[in-house]
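Troubleshooting: if your tokenizer reports a length mismatch, compare your output against this known-good record of 267 residues.
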Amino acid sequence: MKKYISFFRLRFVMGLQYRSAALAGVATQFVWGTMEILMFRAFYEADAAAFPMTLQATCSYVWMQQAFLSLFMAWMMEGEIFNAIVDGNISYELCRPVNLYDMWFARSMANRFSMALLRCIPVLLGSVLIKAPYGMMAPVSWKAFLLFVITLFLGAFVTIAFCMLVYISCFFTVSSMGVRMVAVSVVEFFQGGVIPIPFFPEKVREIMELLPFAAMQNVSFRIYSGDLSGKAMEKAVFLQVFWLIVLTAAGRGLNRIAMKKVVVQGG
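Known-good structure output:
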């Protein structure tokens, strides 16, 4: 366990060094979040009763989405891992006395958490200062805030577990680009990255909420605003734990198969 903690710590510290990139990201996320909110405002002004969430809850959802972008966006995968698989440098990784899956999982956690730490505080503080209902709302209760934090980490772990499947699947393909493009598109749509899941028609939403993608950002953001509570919240948290176990088990199993078949070209 100590070696994986060391991998996490080294990557986390390295990630904190990219402060200029984080500053540029914060500016980008403020602009993008503002554009999304202006779009939603136009829809709400047309017919606010047609939407399942209040405008302020939706705005808070958007700001949290921007603040914690690096935790949940599938396109923030490590190119270094893909390159190692494609060009054969994976052989150096296999020489280490570590489990490849655990090492990559620790690295992915460190990269995502370090980027989130640098970006989330400025975005959250800035959004709190924006006039209601367009700014960040306070949590509906302390219990909701506590559950928000817990489910935020659970959702991040589910995202990483899914990305691990994408990494390992590249052992079985000639190029990683196709797998990455499909995975990114599927995750961003079905986790509510384009349109929040509550906005979908009821039958479609019920199916989407059962998928592993809904166990990513959707649960924690909706708990924070009070849109998810009671039995529905308990079910959502259970599905987060369920999909974390399933995706992790699937990733480990696929990794064992890949390690038995991996061939490194060259001399």
